[in-house]
Amino acid sequence: MSAAPVSEKILILDFGSQYTQVIARRIRECGVYSEIVPFHTKASAIAKLKPSGIILSGGPASVYAKKAPQVDTKIYSLGLPVLGICYGMQLIAHGLGGKVERSTEREYGPGHLKADRSCALFHKLPASLEVWNSHGDKITKLPTGFKPLGKTENSPHAVIGDTKRHIYGLQFHPEVVHTPRGGEILANFVHRICGCKSSWTMGSFIERTCEDIRNQVGDAKVILGLSGGVDSSVAAVLLHKAIGDNLTCIFVDNGLLRAGEADAVKKLFAGEFRIRMQTVHAADQFLKKLKGVTDPERKRKIIGNEFIKVFEAAARDLKKSDPGHYRFLAQGTLYPDVIESVSISGNPAALIKSHHNVGGLPERMKFELVEPLRQLFKDEVRNVGAELGLSKEIIHRQPFPGPGLAVRILGDITAERLRIVREADSIVLEEMKASGWYYKVWQSFAVLLPVRSVGVMGDERTYEYTIALRIVTSHDGMTADWVRVPYDLLAKISSRIINEVNGANRVCYDISTKPPATIEWE
Ligand code: XMP
């Protein structure tokens, strides 16, 4: 699907900073659309994209290193405002005739900026600002036309600018939370220096994207694999708004879902939103294939393969029912999945993969793809969902892995173990919600360990399974820490599981961080 035209955009050249995506999000929070492109994008290609301004990101390299990523210096002659951040600023100095040298003291962590308030970047900001530094190089000679516009304890050139050509550099990172007024500095750049208005709103996105979808698919029909997760749910409601009954969602009940999940999805999407939806009841098929399988990777493979088979069969039936019309497959691909990450970056984008992103299906079944969310970051998807009337329960729900409860039962998957983990999971969910902790954490769930231990219940000896409780915080699933929830909450969850779930007599709390542990146990 072609990207919907957006009237104004800021281009971010990625030099491999771990914060490049954060810059893009901050710009969008200012109401201005932003896109990330690799650092080696030619000035001519940049000009064709018609940006209102360019940001050069930070990066791990030193500008004087042999293989340092360089920028096409013709970008400085495009007549566009440029803002270099950290490495980006040093590139500007280096590329326009200044001098950059290794600093004797690496500046890392908090610093105090004395800003030149006459500079448009600091409009309506105080002269003294807290900023976050992370760099080892410093500018020792400014290029012609540039002047210092701010200094920190260690750096007389913490902010530089050529106010005639609208080229600026910041030694610190305005995009991180440790630079509390950094968002306003970026807003000043995009609004006051680049002249952008605040036209990137989720309302305008919905309108434009609906039109785009209609233009792309015309009278043809679209199939969407609905998982009940945030992305596919928002994609479903958005597509339905655009093409109504020409959208059919396929929901696969693989028997590995949480309690009541299949019914809740049906009630919401088919019932409330009146979306055409087919549920494929395939639990037996999945469980048969998983019988006796204990290896986590094999479990995942089997589930992924079965999913494709079931989905393919359902899609084929739909195609047969209306030949020629079902030409499109929709996917909830997000922006971090499509950013061309640069090799120096180790960019963590898109590392959480879902087998619900039915990989390979479009080509195999000769579908064309519709990806209405491919311009959006996750927080924007949530905002679109809210605008479209989806409840907080859906748009802020915790991630649930594609292979479902199968990776939360260690060892063999049986109907009995599924029941136990499902019941325990329901209790965790209920108590997390009741205590207000559910929305404060990344994930909270129960894992069944195939370990039996002795207990006493009344006068009887028991010999039953152990439930591990996993409650973690995380920003993106790449790293995680266990949550210091109140003991009382742990006590309540534990006592409810032991009292209410037949087959479990012991609860442990998982206090491992990721890395080295993972969030899921398999
Ligand atoms: P791990 O266990 O690797 O999980 O620390 C990181 C995040 O990814 C989720 N996860 C998955 N999500 N399909 C998914 O859609 C999967 O196969 C899958 N495996 C893990 C996990 O729940 C956590 O949020």
Structure, described:
The protein contains 15 helices and 18 strands. It is an alpha/beta fold and 522 residues long. The protein has a 9-stranded mixed β-sheet, sandwiched between helices. Strands 12-11-10-13-14 form a 5-stranded parallel β-sheet, with helices on both faces. Helix 5 crosses helix 6 (230-243) and helix 14 packs antiparallel against helix 15. The protein starts with 8 loop residues before the first strand and ends in a 13-residue tail after the last strand. It binds xanthosine-5'-monophosphate. Xanthosine-5'-monophosphate is lined by residues 352, 354-355, 399, 401-403, 443, 477, 514, 518-520. Xanthosine-5'-monophosphate binds next to loops.
What are the main properties of this structure?
9-stranded mixed beta sheet; globular; 15 helices; Rossmann fold; 5-stranded parallel beta sheet; alpha/beta; 522 residues; binds xanthosine-5'-monophosphate
Within CATH, the superfamily of the largest domain carries the name HUPs
What would the average pLDDT be, to the nearest integer?
A: 93
| Rounded radius of gyration (Å) | 26 Å
Backbone structural class: alpha/beta
The number of distinct β-strands equals 18
Number of domains: 3
Question: Helical element count?
Answer: 15
- The percentage of residues in β strands lies in 15-25%
Q: Spatial order of the strands in the main sheet?
A: 2-1-3-4-9-8-7-5-6
Distance between the termini: 35 Å
Shape: globular
